[in-house]
Amino acid sequence: QVKSKQGGSPCKEKHVVLLSPVGKIEISGCETGVHEIKLPKMSVLPSGAESSVACEVCEGAEEMTEPLQQCTAWLRAYFCEPATTGTLPLPAFHHPLLQRDSFTRQVLWTLLNDVKFGEAVSYKQLADLAGNSRAARAVGGAMRSNPVPIIIPCHRVIRSSGDTGNYGGGHLLKEWLLSHEKLQKEKLA
Known about the structure:
6 helices; two-stranded antiparallel sheet; 4-stranded antiparallel β-sheet; globular; Double Stranded RNA Binding Domain; 2 domains; single chain; 8 strands; Arc Repressor Mutant, subunit A; alpha+beta
């Protein structure tokens, strides 16, 4: 089915489901780029054993567009061989929010480029980095509307108090992602 995003030609959207250590991640996108990554809502965290689960595409593999292939390859690396994510191409994004010029977009790009694996920043620090130190609240809004979580690592944005703060996938998932990165980073060190 063809859904037209406001402005521009309609996209032929494809959907892929990636079975990851934290559950099923749904990814949608077209030939031009990735539209959205939907995280599973987790009420329980996978234990160590499950987190070594191989990452594989369990639905939609046969008709993946290039951006979707790059996206699943990147996510697989993120979970299984994080040292390699730096060498992989980031998929193109094709979500209206990332096309239009806005503070939200600025914040998301800043986060993508400046906050590396295993690091964390506060909402205020990210506002600073994005060029408006008084916009910590707006940063929170930008994180909530992030269409491509994990790749744009909104889980690395925490409260100044050190509290993890909110997360679209739930705070358990946020904590899991942060501890996954910490452990992997220690392994690499």
